[in-house]
Amino acid sequence: MSFDPVYKLVKQIPRGRVLTYGALARALRLPGGARTAGRAMGATPSGKGIPWHRVLGANGKILIREPYASLQKKLLESEGIPVVESRISLRKHLWTPPGKKSSSAKKTRRSSAPR
DNA sequence: CATCTGACGACCG
DNA sequence: GCGGTCGCCAGAT
Q: What is the pTM of this model?
């Protein structure tokens, strides 16, 4: 799969921290954006030690369906991340990936971006 | 070849 | 805060 950089980044997520599909897609410049990120996660090979459960939706919400949702929630709480109503405090646990190329990064931030 | 769907995100009312 | 719509890519039907 050509999602190696995705897995690599996910593996680098420190314990107690999470990342969103959008952030992941942007950090890696994935064509298609968040969708591709989600696709990559879906293709994530299990048993590779990839903390896929640390990847959530844009609002820190668990988008996947059962039974993975329950599993993810369980794993997150296991790492010290409190999950409330299938969501977590992005504000406190959102992790910023390293090497985030800021080429032509404008401050035209969207209003929905977590501050 | 046309359409729908999917581990998504952002905007609009 | 919530629901609906559009955009984006790839694979499935």
A: 0.85
